[in-house]
Amino acid sequence: MKKLVAAISALASMAGGAHADITIAHVYGKTGPFEAYAKQSHDGLMLGLEYATGGTMQIDGEKIVVIEKDTQLKPELGKALLAEAYGDDGADIAVGPVSSGVALAMLPVAEEYEKILLVEPAVADSITGENWNRYIFRTARNSSQDAVANAIAIGGPNVRVATLAQDYAFGRDGVAAFKEALATTGAQVVHEEYVPTDATDFTAAAERIFNAMKDVEGEKKLFIIWAGGGNPMGKINAMDPGRYGIEIATGGNILAALKAYKDMPGMEGATYYYYEIPRNPVNDWLVKTHFERFGTPPDFFTAGGMAAGIAIVEAIRKAGSTETEALIAAMEGMEFQTPKGRMVFRPEDHQALQSMYHFRTEIQEGKDYGVPVLVRELGIEDLPIPIRNGR
């Protein structure tokens, strides 16, 4: 029945003539702990559509209409809202969500309605791995891209690592991928800690980590995988892990979270984006426009949202249609330019391959956060990202 509704909606759109609207549904967690991520993602999406259409917000004469739906970070709600977007609103393509847990609930809906879901910014490997279907594409980086890049940045034969992560798909997929990537460098993970997503007290977890690491020989690091509030890095750093020879390491994050990095100058890791790192025309436009519009630099997820917007425009132009099979054919292997430079949708799992950035934290005058300064760009060819969907 739902497929019939979708088909009728498509026919109605065709009957409307050549200048029917192109409807994009942004289904994402506008409210809740990831609200800051959501706003960045939406701002970036709109900027990406604007940039790719030269400010017209049209593709081949057809007007782009963006509708928003708030998942409130609830998987069942996200699932229902995506079905509503495809079935009732006639969305040609959907973008979102913020949370990996919500994304996993939404994947089967895209398959049921035979419509594309462009995942941005949810990260869990299982989205383009074991739970993937052919209607799923992702501009966001996945857990393996984070993991491989960070393993290159901090790994080595004498390195011993403990991990702290949130106890859901993002955290567990992230640690699994990180362990796999670290093994190729000769490093070893000696302890893992998982805590609730809304944890604010890390005392017990930190003590278990310290006890597990204090007698370990080698270069000891605590690697933290975290999204949202709670500030585990700052709180654990205040407990003086250095007395056990433990250094904290982590990947990149939004500007607000980088304030905790200021207490750890010299810390290394790998990041998805920081506005001063990429040097290309798309990022130049994004930085200039964002300062003009909002008075602030673009943030972590603004870049991802912009990549999604650009990808949609390029795909519809290439396909010459919003018909799903034409879009899939156009998007598999499609290369497009983003604020991070070149991305390409890998045909096997529709994951966007992209650069990551090995950074070292630096204190800079006039900035109230630790600045991730580029050590080395890790290009697509430097990042052996596994295919996990068995295709």
Automatic annotation (TrEMBL):
CDD domains linked to this entry: PBP1_SBP-like (cd06328)
Keywords: Amino-acid transport, Signal, Transport
InterPro entries per UniProt: BCAA_transport, Leu-bd, Peripla_BP_I
Domain Leucine-binding protein, chain residue ranges per copy: 22-362
Gene3D superfamilies hit by this protein: 3.40.50.2300
GO biological process, one term: amino acid transport
Superkingdom classification of source: Bacteria
Membrane spanning stretches: none
Keyword Cell cycle in record: no
Signal peptide bounds: 1-20
UniProt KW Aminoacyl-tRNA synthetase keyword: no
Family per similarity comment: Belongs to the leucine-binding protein family.
Protein name: Branched-chain amino acid transport system substrate-binding protein
Organism: Oceanicella actignis
